[in-house]
Each structure stands twice: as structure tokens, then as C-alpha cells.
Design a protein that fits this description.
- By secondary structure, the chain is an alpha+beta fold.
- The protein folds into 4 domains: about 60 residues, no CATH class; about 140 residues, no CATH class; about 50 residues, no CATH class; about 40 residues, Laminin (Ribbon), CATH 2.10.25.10.
- The strands form 9 sheets. Strands 9-8-17-12-15 form a 5-stranded antiparallel beta sheet, with no helix packed on it. A 4-stranded antiparallel beta sheet has the order 6-7-18-11, with no helix packed on it.
- Strand 23 and strand 24 form a beta hairpin.
- It is elongated, with a radius of gyration of 28 Å.
- Bound molecules: 2-acetamido-2-deoxy-beta-D-glucopyranose (6 copies).
- One 2-acetamido-2-deoxy-beta-D-glucopyranose binds next to loops.
- This is Wall-associated receptor kinase.
């Protein structure tokens, strides 16, 4: 198998790439990282609080119900001052915000659980449902639906423009079968979620009520959450703190957008939210709506008057030590002082003393055998690359069970 010519060629290609990364032909200007709306100088509307507990709340969000600090009632952040630190919630509901970014909100998780006695009686259970219909929010595809347990299956039912149903089956017969760190159906299973879901509900079921595995796994759990933030561990099955830990540590990721019109239509409307020197970005959830970004070379909060302001790039000294930096709206330019030639840019030619020799060429492309083979053979390899057969990923069971899913619907209202 390893001697198949296509595979040898592919290996050769990979090794060649690893040994000789292709030289980059152009140097990309090291633009300063763009600031998020939470870092803008004008984060909140004038006269409004900026922080609730540890959370920075940037406009179009605003602290206080009906305080006029947000762009609309669904962007109101209800700051509960009875706890310390204060806790921020979306509007009048019980969804606690942990982060607000330029395009997403992260909220504290809700985890469905079902626990059993040795004889299979249910000791406690809860289902989970969140309904964002009529709000600017939808579930992000950064979430995954996860089931943890050794005798558990759960369905997820969601809706947006279309209906979504999926599920996950997680089984194991002994704890030694479980592989730490792998959520692939033994003790833990995961399915991806599409973007644009407006509602989500989930309930757990079991094949044998945990009677055969109770000694090492008394409960099953189901939740959606940021796929980057959850890693399955064998010890999770016996951890009585699992549900609370997951609620604290694995946020649910929510996409937000303003309205449901696209940019072209929104621009014609009197309440268009993007201010000067910003661009409108259409939401990619399929549900319509838009957000605003500062234009290239500008910073600030694009939703607040007077809009985004020019970045003085000269403050970060982008020009050669012999160069002269001139800030321009949205950009900057470099020139060279008397006695020097060049573009004046640190990331370009810089400034070269007129009398000095031509600058040394900074790198040369070494043509090695590997590179020749690589360059010459690339198109020929393409068909071989496609011919390599990758088996389907192991699929998880999908159980279209729909009982009791509407119980305990959490309504953010
Ligand atoms: C908007 O700005 C953010 C950084 O603030 C950037 O990551 C993102 O790519 C921008 N989006 C567009 C569509 O320009
Ligand atoms: C367990 O369930 C059985 C029937 O399924 C019932 O007879 C029994 O009383 C239950 N035990 C407890 C402790 O609830
Ligand atoms: C979600 O809420 C909307 C309106 O608030 C309601 O019409 C709809 O039936 C709810 N969806 C579910 C699945 O409960
Ligand atoms: C989604 O499901 C509901 C209830 O089962 C149904 O009334 C509705 O027509 C479905 N929507 C779509 C787009 O299939
Ligand atoms: C599991 O529990 C449910 C409800 O308590 C009961 O109806 C069902 O018969 C039990 N199943 C098994 C396999 O014990
Ligand atoms: C989980 O948190 C709830 C509410 O904060 C608390 O009542 C409960 O005792 C906690 N459970 C565990 C096992 O820590």
C-alpha cells in the first residue's frame, strides 16, 4: 500500500513542503490588530454605563432595561446588582451573558441531565429549551451538540427558516472502553449544528436506565456549547459537579445582527445603524440582518456618532528611520528625507542613502530538486490527490424522538 506511486509522490510533496516552505513573495504590512467594539474609546452611548460586573457592554448593546442605552429592547442588558460581581442578562430573561463581541454573544450554558438509581429509577431530570424567535439572536455553528453518558441518547430539535432535527447516541459497557479526550460515541458523542437556528430544545433518553453501568456512570447529560471550550474526560462520568462545571465553563455561542433587512435595504432606511467611516456587513446566518465595521484605517464604535475615527498610523512608526510619515484619512504615506531614495516604508524598501550601493537582495529562491519536482509536477498530482479515498466519518445514531421536548421552554422574555 505504501509503495503505491501516488502515495509516494504525495509523501514526497508533503515532505518537500515541510522542508521548504514556499518563500513569500510580498511582505504584508503588519497592520495593527483591529480593535473590537468593546475596546473602542466610545464603547457605550454617552451617559450610559460601560460595565456590568466583569462584562464590557458596547453599543448597540446597553445596560439597563428601557434605559435608552441600547439600540432596541433586545439589546438591553439587564444588570442584576443583587449578586457580586453583578450579573448581566439578555433583556428580561434568564440568559446570563459572559461575553459580547463584534458579531457574537456568549451566554452561560444550560445543561440537560437525567440521573438514575442503581435499579433504574430516575432521581432527577431536566430538559433544555431556548427560543430566540423574534429576537436578533440565533445559535452559531461554533456550537456543537454533545451528549455525555454511557447509556444515553438525546435529540436536538431546532427551527429557523427550516426545521432541524438530529441526535446523538453514546454507549459503553465498561469504563475501560472510554478513551480520554475523545468524544466519538463511547461515553461521549457530538454532532455539529447549522448556523441560523432560532430555537433549540433537547431531552435525554436511555436504553437501560443506566442499570448496567450505574457503578461508574449514574447520569447522562446533553448540551450545546462552544466546541473550543469542551473537552471530554473519562472522569466526567462520575463527576457530580459536571453539570455545574459545564454551565460555568462552556458557553453557548449566539450570533447577533441588527434587524432582518440586508445591507442594501437597510441603507435606505432612516434608522440605518452604521455611522460615518464604517461598512455594513450582511449577516451570514441566512436570516437577514446586518452589523457594522469600521472602514480600513479607522477605529471606534461604528454604531455611535460621530462614527469611526481615523487611525494615526504614524504613531506606530511604520516608516524607515530616515523616512517621513504623513497620516492621511484611512491611511498614511512614507517618504524619504533629503539624500535618501526609496518608498520609505519599514516593510518596503525603506530609505536608501543616494550614494550608497544598491541594497542587497534579501533572499534568493533556491531551486532544489524537490522544488523542481514540486513546481513541475503539481498539476499532474492533482488527480492523484483527489483519488485518495477517505472513508466516511463514523456516524452516530440519530433518533427522531420527539417526546416532551416542549417542556420547560426557557423564554428569554
Ligand atoms: C470586521 O472587523 C473585524 C475586526 O474588528 C474583522 O475581524 C472582520 O474581518 C471585519 N469584517 C469584515 C467583513 O470586514
Ligand atoms: C422504582 O420504580 C419502581 C417501578 O418502576 C417503583 O415500584 C419503585 O417504588 C421505585 N423506587 C423508588 C425508590 O422510587
Ligand atoms: C418561540 O416563541 C415564539 C414567539 O415568541 C412562538 O410563536 C413559538 O411557538 C416558540 N417556539 C417554540 C418551539 O416554542
Ligand atoms: C417545521 O415544523 C413545524 C412543526 O412540525 C411545521 O409546522 C413547519 O411547517 C415546519 N417548517 C418547515 C420550513 O418545514
Ligand atoms: C426505565 O424507566 C422508565 C421510567 O421510569 C420505565 O418506564 C422503563 O420501563 C425503564 N426501562 C428499563 C429498561 O428499565
Ligand atoms: C450546582 O449549582 C446549583 C445552583 O448554583 C446548586 O444549587 C447545586 O448545589 C450545585 N450542584 C453541585 C453538585 O455542585
Amino acid at each position: 500500500m505504501l509503495h503505491h506511486p501516488a502515495i509516494l509522490l504525495l509523501l514526497h510533496l508533503l515532505l518537500a513542503l515541510a522542508d521548504h516552505p514556499p518563500p513569500s513573495s510580498t511582505t504584508v504590512a503588519a497592520a495593527p490588530p483591529r480593535k473590537s467594539i468593546s475596546e473602542a474609546a466610545n464603547t457605550a452611548k454617552p451617559g450610559c454605563q460601560t460595565k456590568c460586573g466583569d462584562l464590557t457592554v458596547p453599543y448597540p448593546f446597553g445596560i439597563g432595561l428601557n434605559s435608552g442605552c441600547s439600540i432596541g429592547p433586545w439589546f438591553d442588558v439587564n444588570c442584576d446588582s443583587s449578586s457580586s460581581p453583578h450579573k448581566p442578562f439578555i433583556a428580561t430573561g434568564n440568559l446570563e451573558i459572559v461575553d459580547i463581541s463584534d458579531d457574537q454573544v456568549r451566554i452561560k450554558n444550560w445543561v440537560a441531565a437525567r440521573c438514575y438509581t442503581e435499579t433504574g429509577n430516575i432521581t432527577r431530570q431536566n430538559t433544555i429549551a431556548i427560543n430566540f424567535t423574534g429576537t436578533p439572536y440565533s445559535f452559531s455553528d461554533s456550537n456543537r451538540f454533545t451528549v455525555v453518558g454511557c447509556d444515553d441518547l438525546a435529540v436536538i430539535v431546532g427551527s429557523s427558516g427550516r426545521n432541524f432535527t438530529s441526535g446523538c447516541l453514546s454507549l459503553c459497557s465498561q469504563s475501560s472502553d472510554i478513551i480520554d479526550g475523545f468524544c466519538t460515541g463511547i461515553g461521549c458523542c457530538q454532532v455539529p449544528m447549522p448556523k441560523g437556528l432560532k430555537t433549540f430544545s433537547s431531552a435525554l433518553a436511555s436504553l437501560n436506565n443506566h442499570t448496567r453501568i450505574h457503578s461508574f456512570d449514574p447520569c447522562g447529560y446533553a448540551f450545546i456549547g462552544d466546541q473550543e471550550r469542551f473537552q471530554f474526560h473519562t472522569s466526567d462520568l462520575q463527576d457530580t459537579g459536571f453539570q455545574n462545571r459545564t454551565i460555568q465553563n462552556v458557553p453557548i455561542v449566539i450570533d447577533w445582527a441588527i434587524g432582518n433587512a440586508n445591507c442594501d435595504d437597510a441603507k435606505k432606511s432612516a434608522d440605518f445603524a452604521c455611522r460615518e467611516n464604517s461598512v455594513c456587513i450582511g449577516s451570514d446566518t441566512g436570516l437577514g440582518g446586518y452589523r457594522c465595521n469600521c472602514s480600513e484605517g479607522y477605529e471606534g464604535n461604528p454604531y455611535l456618532s460621530p462614527g469611526c475615527t481615523d487611525i494615526n498610523e504614524c504613531e506606530s512608526n511604520p516608516c524607515d528611520e530616515h523616512g517621513i510619515c504623513t497620516n492621511t484619512p484611512g491611511s498614511y504615506s512614507c517618504s524619504c528625507g533629503d539624500g535618501y531614495n526609496g518608498d520609505g516604508r519599514k516593510d518596503g524598501q525603506g530609505c536608501i542613502a543616494v550614494n550608497s550601493q544598491f541594497p542587497v537582495i534579501k533572499f534568493s529562491i533556491e531551486i532544489t530538486e524537490e522544488n523542481e519536482a514540486l513546481l513541475g509536477g503539481q498539476s499532474g498530482f492533482a488527480s492523484d490527490l483527489y483519488a485518495i479515498n477517505v472513508g466516511p466519518e463514523s456516524s452516530t445514531g440519530i433518533y427522531p424522538i420527539r417526546d416532551n421536548l416542549d417542556d420547560h421552554m426557557i423564554n428569554p422574555r
